[in-house]
Give the backbone structure.
Amino acid sequence: MLRLLLVVLLLSGCAAPYDYAEDTDFSRFTTVALAPTADSQSLDGARITASALALLPGRGLHLAQPEQASLWLNYQLLEETRLLTTIPRLTARHGSFWDDEERVYGAVRELRLKLWLEEPGGRMLWSSKHPRAFPAERIKGAERSRRIEQQVAELLANYPPRD
């Protein structure tokens, strides 16, 4: 039983949450382009867009120019604050038990990668935000590229959406 619970917890940690417009037939979309507003000039922007554009043909979308594409790919790095807390526990003291409270002892600002696909008119059809933090600034070069590619691949694994 414990083994099954551990496997479920490990697998659930790998899945990136996603959402989509349920009234959309995704099989009608065959082409994709980088949204004209997406930043592909920064180093991280270039890594994100290169990874996504390399993976999308494997998801059934062919690359096209923005004017001819049925979908546009966009991304954003969202800043979030994660609270650092103590774990509540039962502690024995002089033969009695009491419940220790959960206490906040700090906060960490993290970036999270969000990808979305939208119609050229701007209507968002599919989005996914990675559950883990974007690679920190201290991670450089090839290792940073590898981690970004991994996050993009995990996000795009949910496209096209499954019912």
Observations:
- The chain has three helices and eight strands.
